[in-house]
């Protein structure tokens, strides 16, 4: 389960909206204990692709975020990105690029009036929805 406090969800949604019409992206950090991951930090990064259909994070931004995460004694828990006009589910590209089955892959869809935020675990080409708690 991914524990994603409302403040973190709000930060992700604000970043997703600010990125429109393109996808927005970032990293999630915090503490993991067993199957429960608690997000304590949201790192909003720049989408280098500037595309409504895919994203890539700037390596220097990722490096800076990872340095801060380590200084705080946290772990990288996952990443997030938005889908401006498609549902909150991993695309074929999202699944292909998922590099670590222990990470949470959060997708927020802005395709409808009310945003839809979901988390997924992706392993061996398969995506399974992960429960989100607050």
Automatic annotation (TrEMBL):
<dbReference type="GO" id="GO:0008270">
    <property type="term" value="F:zinc ion binding"/>
</dbReference>
<dbReference type="InterPro" id="IPR028090">
    <property type="entry name" value="JAB_dom_prok"/>
</dbReference>
<keyword id="KW-0378">Hydrolase</keyword>
<keyword id="KW-0862">Zinc</keyword>
<protein>
    <submittedName>
        <fullName>Mov34/MPN/PAD-1</fullName>
    </submittedName>
</protein>
<dbReference type="InterPro" id="IPR000555">
    <property type="entry name" value="JAMM/MPN+_dom"/>
</dbReference>
<keyword id="KW-0645">Protease</keyword>
<dbReference type="GO" id="GO:0006508">
    <property type="term" value="P:proteolysis"/>
</dbReference>
<dbReference type="Pfam" id="PF14464">
    <property type="entry name" value="Prok-JAB"/>
</dbReference>
<dbReference type="InterPro" id="IPR051929">
    <property type="entry name" value="VirAsm_ModProt"/>
</dbReference>
<feature type="domain" description="MPN">
    <location>
        <begin position="1"/>
        <end position="126"/>
    </location>
</feature>
<dbReference type="InterPro" id="IPR037518">
    <property type="entry name" value="MPN"/>
</dbReference>
<keyword id="KW-0482">Metalloprotease</keyword>
<dbReference type="GO" id="GO:0008235">
    <property type="term" value="F:metalloexopeptidase activity"/>
</dbReference>
<keyword id="KW-0479">Metal-binding</keyword>
């Amino acid at each position: 389960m991914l524990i994603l406090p409302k403040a973190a969800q709000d930060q992700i949604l604000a970043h997703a909206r600010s990125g429109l019409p393109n996808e927005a992206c970032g990293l999630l950090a915090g503490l993991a204990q067993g199957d429960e991951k608690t997000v304590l930090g949201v790192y909003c990064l720049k989408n280098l692709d500037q595309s409504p259909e895919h994203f890539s994070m700037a390596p220097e931004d990722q490096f800076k975020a990872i340095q801060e995460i380590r200084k705080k004694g946290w772990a990288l828990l996952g990443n997030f990105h938005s889908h401006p006009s498609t549902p909150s589910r991993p695309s074929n590209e999202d699944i292909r690029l998922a590099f670590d089955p222990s990470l949470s892959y959060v997708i927020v869809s802005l395709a409808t009036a009310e945003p839809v935020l979901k988390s997924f675990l992706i392993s061996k080409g398969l995506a399974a929805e992960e429960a989100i708690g607050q």
